[in-house]
Design goal:
The chain has seven helices and ten strands. The protein is of the alpha/beta class. It has a domain of 146 residues: P-loop containing nucleotide triphosphate hydrolases (Rossmann fold, 3-Layer(aba) Sandwich), CATH 3.40.50. The strands form two sheets. The chain has a six-stranded mixed beta sheet with strand order 6-7-8-3-9-10, sandwiched between helices. Helix 6 crosses helix 7. It binds adenosine-5'-triphosphate (ATP). Adenosine-5'-triphosphate binds next to strand 2 and helix 1. Keywords: ATP-binding, Nucleotide-binding, Transport. One of its GO terms (molecular function) is ATP binding. Pfam families: ABC_tran. This is ABC transporter ATP-binding protein.
Length: 271
């Protein structure tokens, strides 16, 4: 593990016995998260992997503060929090762009909210637009962009506010394979150089092993973290990392877990 991943004493994010029950007490009640606890330290890259519908997005939204848990507590730097703040920013699966605003305005939005002004805003907006390969598209509107480009705007917007913790819900799912690999490397670069902490949902085992310092494996619903797998491969990682025997072993561990959980889902008639 590199120096940036050396653990500090107080976790940047800690969550204790989180439960999320949708429509509690109603016939359509769904127990989405059950007694989920964990600690995330500065500089970690955490991926969450689990079968479809197990509560991954619910967990991310809860950790961001967008969703209030039915019970349990979230701590940022040791203090309990009860809603969103500037320390955590979310990159959504469905982009969540404002269609009436240009690429530039979408990326600048969070910075204005944070009270930033003038050239500081401009420099940051342009830096992150360039980083995701969208320079030249600043004045375009979302409807003029492909799905992959829209997703890159969403990623630039998340990065631009420079949060301590970036929460990403399948951020690369709409991006073509080539851009996806570039974005994976870019996210890792940012994480290592700027000591960012990332929590990341993906359905791709390969992506999770490539990016993560630790992977949370979730059970079928009600979602629980049933195992944490530390990926002990040093950063920076390159395409050659994928040729290491341990890389393949990690992939097999994750795959065996997922297969087991999906089988459980089938047996319960939910898949
Ligand atoms: N607002 C809501 N109201 C009621 N039920 C919900 C709500 N949001 C999610 N659910 C249910 O909670 C469970 C967990 O959903 P969630 O989206 O967190 O799972 P997920 O693991 O992210 O799914 P996927 O892998 O398909 O993206 C699912 O059964 C889902 O139908």
């Amino acid at each position: 593990m590199t120096e940036t991943l050396v653990k500090t004493k107080i976790p940047i994010l800690q969550f204790d016995s989180l439960n999320v029950i949708y429509n509690e007490g109603e016939p359509n009640q769904v127990h989405a998260l059950k007694d989920v606890s964990g600690e995330i330290h500065e500089g970690e890259f955490i991926s969450i992997i689990g079968p479809s519908g197990c509560g991954k997005s619910t967990m991310l939204h809860t950790l961001d503060g967008l969703l209030q848990p039915t019970s349990g507590t979230i701590f940022v730097n040791g203090s309990p929090v009860h809603g969103p703040d500037g320390d955590r920013a979310m990159v959504f699966q469905d982009f969540a762009l404002m269609p009436w605003q240009t690429v530039y305005q979408n990326v600048e939005f969070g910075l204005r909210l944070a009270g930033k002004k003038g050239s500081e805003i401009h420099d940051k907006v342009m830096h992150y637009i360039k980083l995701v390969g969208l320079d030249g598209f600043e004045q375009k509107y979302p409807h003029q962009l492909s799905g992959g480009m829209k997703q890159r705007v969403g990623i630039a917007r998340g990065f631009a506010v420079e949060p301590k913790v970036l929460l990403m819900d399948e951020p690369f799912s709409a991006i073509d394979e080539q851009t996806r690999e570039i974005m994976q490397e870019e996210v890792l670069k940012i994480m290592l150089h700027e000591k960012k902490t990332v929590i990341f949902i993906t359905h791709s085992i390969d992506e999770a092993v490539f990016l993560s310092s630790r992977i949370f494996l979730m059970s079928v619903r009600p979602g629980q973290i049933v195992e944490e797998v530390k990926i002990d491969i040093p950063y920076p990682r390159t395409l050659e990392t994928k040729l290491l025997p341990e890389y393949q072993e990690y992939k097999q561990i994750i795959w065996d877990h997922l297969k087991g959980e999906v089988r459980r889902q089938y047996r319960r008639g939910e898949a």
